[in-house]
């Protein structure tokens, strides 16, 4: 089993289903094979979130890396606590990245 996620931009597409019970496929790039099929009461919203997951993960990783390398990150904690990052939120962000990636 690969530890890499399926590469490419993910998107959702409504698949053949009745309007009263739509299903959505999650696809990577131009692949004709769905990575997942989502159905149920919140199918479109759930499929939208799943399709956005790779971009959200990359954005979160890059944001945390940018914050960590920013001048004053450590100094802000000791000089001006109002400028310091909320450590609980930072910890939650790292936990979310860990949850979304394989060890």
Rg, alpha carbons: 19 Å
% residues in beta strands: 15-25%
- Largest sheet, strands/sense/barrel: 3 strands, antiparallel
Uncertain stretches of 5 or more adjacent residues: 75-79
N-to-C order of helices and strands: EEEHHH
Helix content range: 40-55%
- By secondary-structure content and strand pairing, the structural class works out as alpha+beta
Query: How many DSSP-defined strands?
Result: 3
Number of helix segments?
3
Overall pLDDT level: 83
If strands are numbered along the chain, what order do they take across the biggest sheet? 1-2-3
Based on Cα principal axes, name the global outline: elongated
> What's the number of structural domains?
1
Describe this structure in words.
With 103 residues, the protein is α+β, with helices and mostly antiparallel strands. The protein has one domain. It is built from 3 helices and 3 strands. The protein has helices at 43-69, 73-79, 87-100, and strands at 10-15, 23-28, 36-39. It has a 3-stranded antiparallel β-sheet, with helices on one face. A hairpin with a 7-residue loop joins strand 2 (23-28) and strand 3. It is elongated. 8% of the residues are buried.
């Amino acid at each position: 089993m690969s530890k890499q996620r399926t590469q490419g931009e993910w998107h959702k597409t409504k698949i053949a289903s009745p309007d009263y019970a739509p299903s959505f496929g999650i696809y990577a790039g131009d692949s004709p094979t769905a990575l997942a099929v989502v159905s149920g009461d919140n199918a479109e919203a759930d499929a939208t979130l799943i399709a956005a997951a790779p971009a959200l993960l990359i954005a979160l990783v890059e944001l945390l890396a940018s914050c960590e390398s920013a001048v004053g990150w450590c100094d802000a904690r000791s000089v001006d606590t109002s400028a310091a990052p909320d450590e609980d939120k930072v910890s939650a962000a790292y936990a979310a990245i860990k949850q979304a990636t394989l060890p």
